[in-house]
Amino acid sequence: MSPSALVTNIGELMTQDPARGSDGVLRDAAIVIEGERISWLGPAAEAPAADEQFDAEGRALLPGWVDSHTHLVFAGDRTAEFEARMAGQDYAAGGIAVTMEATRGASDYDLTRLLLGRAAEAVAGGTTYLETKTGYGLDVEQEARSARIAATVADQVTYLGAHLVPAGVDADEYTDLVCGDMLAAVRPYVQWADVFCERGAFTAEQSRRVLAACRDAGLGLRVHGNQLGEGPGVQLAVEFSAASVDHVNYLNDDDVAALAGTWSGWDARSGTGEPGTVATCLPACDLSTRQPLAPGRTLLDAGVEIALASNCNPGTSYTSAMNYCVTTAVLQMGLSVHEAVRAATYAGAL
């Protein structure tokens, strides 16, 4: 049996379990750790004995951040794009091609070294569970390479061959490739699939084909949607019962209602039932691209579970600082502290 450790005198313990107190917070709490698991938590006065004891000195204790949306396998930088955007030029998806060329030209060693550095930075900032995507290779060999490298570092890997149609390639032919040979090549390394359903990227019908093929291959589904304007991304995510739809900057009433409808079978208090489609808000990206912040408050009030993630990537959100995302959600999106912490931990893991 692993030695046990008691951490006591915790001022606030954020459990994310509403059954354990207001907003899932226990005050004057304690936890017992055995090995790598928390084996007990509750009021400090009721704590069992343990092999070792540590005094939290009244500090708050909360789960590590779950960063459910990142793009960390890349080489090169897009400083020029950032400077242009700050000068008032509109963001469009074309910047992805710059990173594609740099990534294709990098060695396995360099891509792995860069990925390890970014993951270490995320961990130093409090992230304890990390998703990352492919999407900067955009051919069969390069996407498989990105997936293989990502799988050596990230906790979860998402296939994003449908990130951008490379220049000079027919969009429908490329969609066929994403659904066929490319999918087969990445499948051993990935758990999820994603599609950038947006103007300048993939149409609703192309996105539908990608989602159907990846679902049939046994992958969980995610969607990049409604980032640059109203569009079909949210409705597609609902249609395919996707685990999440990410960005969600531009939503109409029908989009909000559709997302809320996916949560009708979920009991948030007990954590039982079938979870719906999470709306992942990416506030660091929104500020960098000068897009409206995603309507997190509106979604929560409608009964939609929202997540917060960094969207760490070279072009539109070059940060893994989940603390920054949580702070922005409180200061500018109308979330309470407890709602923002829940969105950056519990909801990202659904």
TrEMBL record:
Keywords: Histidine metabolism, Hydrolase, Iron, Metal-binding, Zinc. Gene3D superfamilies: Metal-dependent hydrolases. Its EC number is 3.5.2.7. It is an enzyme of class 3 (hydrolase). One of its GO terms (biological process) is L-histidine catabolic process to glutamate and formamide. Coiled coil: none annotated. The keyword Iron applies. SUPFAM superfamilies: Composite domain of metallo-dependent hydrolases, Metallo-dependent hydrolases. One of its GO terms (cellular component) is cytoplasm. GO terms for molecular function: imidazolonepropionase activity; metal ion binding. Pathway: Amino-acid degradation. InterPro entries: HutI (IPR005920), Metal-dep_hydrolase_composite (IPR011059), Metal_Hydrolase (IPR032466). The keyword Cell inner membrane does not apply. This is imidazolonepropionase. It comes from Arthrobacter crystallopoietes BAB-32. The lineage of its organism: Bacteria, Bacillati, Actinomycetota, Actinomycetes, Micrococcales.
